[in-house]
Amino acid sequence: MNLVRRLSVCASVVIVSALTPVALASASVTIPFQINPAPYGNPNGSFDAPAVRCVAVVGEQPGTVTITGGKEDRWGCLLSSEVRWLNLSTGASGSARLSDGLNGVPAEAIVQTGTGQVAVAVLSVAGSIITPGATSFYVP
Fold first, then answer.
1. Mind listing the pLDDT tens digit for each residue in 106-115?
2. Is residue 19 part of a domain?
3. Which one of 18, 20, 34, 98 has the largest count of C-beta atoms within 10 Å of its C-beta?
4. Which of 67, 71, 73, 64 is nearest to 55 (CA)?
């Protein structure tokens, strides 16, 4: 009976040890960053153009980043803006566009960056004057 208990404890430890990294890897992480508007060329912004808060969400899917708004229900990032990214670990780069936010769907861009340290910049819509928002993070 003692042997059976020992074997069951050992099996439990092995199973928990094997499942722990899977649970940790599936947790998503939200990295906030800010875009500062500069209306009419004013680098300090103004009361009618507050800072825009976006987030990068990593860990939802391997090698993928979601750029979206930092407010409730993922609202708050610039609509139809350009997202440029560079994977500093692999040298891969690319661009995407945030969606237009129509039909109650918040602006977001899902970017396939691959695993590694990634730098992202969100640029303004053509014709507007804003300071790009940028961040860097690790994509699992």
1. 889 999 999 9
2. no
3. 98
4. 67
